[in-house]
Amino acid sequence: MTDVAGVSFYQPRRLLMQGSTPVECEVLNVIQGAGIWPDCEDKTQLLQAIQVLADAQGMNGIAAAAGYFSMMGKMSASGATSLNIPEGSVNIGGNGKGFIITAQTGFDVSEAANHDGSFSSLVLGDDIYIYAVDNGVAEAKLIASKNADFPDGYSAVTSRKIGGFHYGRVRPVANRYDTAFLPTVQIVPNSVWDLNHRPTCDPTGMVEIVPGGFWADIYLNSEGGGTWPENVPVSRYGQTLIRNLDYARSDMHLLVRNAGKRLPTVEEFMTYAEGAPAGQDNNNEFAWAANTNGSPSSAGFVEKSVSMFNVVDAVGNLWDFLDDHHDWGGAFSKDASVVNVGKDAAIPRGTVEHADWSNFAGGGSYTYGAGAGSRCLHTSSKPWVTNGVVGLRGVCEAA
C-alpha cells in the first residue's frame, strides 16, 4: 500500500481494459497512482492526479510544504447562506499532505451535509469558518463551523481553516441613507475572506472597505480575552461595549494594537460610515442617539444603523475614537494631568507639552440626537478624558 498526499490506497493499482492503447494505459496509471478511482464521466481526473502527485513529491517546489494554500480567485457570497468557492489546493496536516479543492457554486452552509453540527441554522451575529478537511481521498471536503480552532469531529492535524464570513445586517449601496429600508440579515458580502483575500489581522467580525486597501470592524468593540495591558478587544454582535470609563481614550491605541489593528483615520471613518442614516433627537429608529438615552446600547442593537459598507453603529451609540491628533495653539506648558489617567494612572509616564491637545472622534454618541451622522466629527475631543461616551473600532490593512 502506498500513501501519497495523505491518501491510503485501497483501490487496485490497475484497471486497464484489454485492448487499451498505450496512451490510455499511461493515463490510467497516473490517475490510479494518485489514488483516484477512474471515472469516464469526469474529464478532470488527469489534472487532479498531476496536482496530487506534484504536491506529494514536491514537484512544484512549494505545494508539498506545510502551510501551502492556493485558490483560483476568491471566495464570495452567492446568496443569503451560500458561497461560491473557486478551485484550488491546500496542505492539511504537514509537509507532503496536499489536497485538491474542487470549485463549488452555491455552497450552502446551512445544509446539514456542509456543516459540522456546531450550528443548526445561521443567526444574526454568527461568525462562521470554512475548513478543508482530510476526508481520506485526494479531494478535501469543505465544512462550515462556528468553531474558531477546528470543526467538530476533526483536529488541527486533519483540518485547515481556509476562509469564513459574518452573518449580519446588510445595506446595499442603492439603499444608502434610505430610512425606509430595513437591512437584510444574510452573509455579509464584504465580510467573506479566505487565506489569499483577508486583512492582516484576525478577520473575524470585519468587512473590507477598500478592496486591497483596508478592513474595518463591523461592530464597536467589546472585551475579548486577557487582562490589561494584553487584553484583546473583539468585534461581536450583542455585546457590552468598551468605552472610556476605566480606560482613558489614550489607552485605546494599545487596546486595538492587541488585536493586531490600529485606530481609524478621519478619512477612513467617513468612508466606512457612508450611507448610515443620521440620528434623531427623540427616537432611536435609525441610530442609538435619542437625547433621552441614559447609556449606550449593546453592539448592533438598532436594526437600521448600518452603513453601505455594512459597518454597524458608525452613527450614534458611542463616538468612534480616531487617530488624528492636533493642538489648537496658544500658551504651551508641560502637563502631567493628561498623562496620569486611565488604566495606568498611578504610574508616572512623563508630561505632554500642549496648549489644548485634542483629537478627532466620529459619528456621535448615544445622546447626540440629530447631530449624529456619517459626517459628524468632534474636532476637540480630549484624549485623556474618561466620561464614557467614546468607544473603540479597529481597522487594518489588507494582507
Written overview of the protein:
The chain has 399 residues and is mainly β. The chain is 10% helix and 25% strand. It has helices at 22-33, 45-57, 252-258, 266-272, and strands at 3-4, 7-8, 69-71, 76-77, 82-85, 88-91, 98-101, 104-108, 127-133, 141-145, 159-170, 184-187, 193-194, 206-208, 214-217, 222-223, 233-234, 319-327, 333-335, 352-354, 357-362, 377-381, 390-391, 395-397. Strands 9, 10, 11, 12 and 13 form a 5-stranded antiparallel β-sheet that branches. The longest helix is centred in the N-terminal third of the chain and has 13 residues, at 45-57. The two termini are 41 Å apart.
Which labels suit this protein?
elongated, single chain, 4 helices, five-stranded antiparallel sheet, disordered N terminus, four-stranded mixed sheet, 25% strand, mainly beta, 399 residues
Give a quick account of the main beta sheet: strands, pairing sense, barrel closure.
Answer: 5 strands, antiparallel
Instruction: Compute the separation of the termini in Å.
Output: 41 Å
Mean pLDDT: 91
- Please tally the helical runs, counting DSSP H or I stretches of 4 or more residues: 4
Low-confidence regions? 1-17, 56-64
Rg over CA atoms: 26 Å
The H-and-E topology, N to C, reads as EEHHEEEEEEEEEEEEEEEHHEEEEEEE
Helix content bin = under 10%
Q: Say how many strands there are.
A: 24
Strand content is 15-25%
Principal-axes shape call: elongated
Structural class: mainly beta
Outline of this structure?
It is built from 4 helices and 24 strands. The protein has 399 residues and is mostly beta strands. Strand 14 (206-208) and strand 15 (214-217) form a beta hairpin.
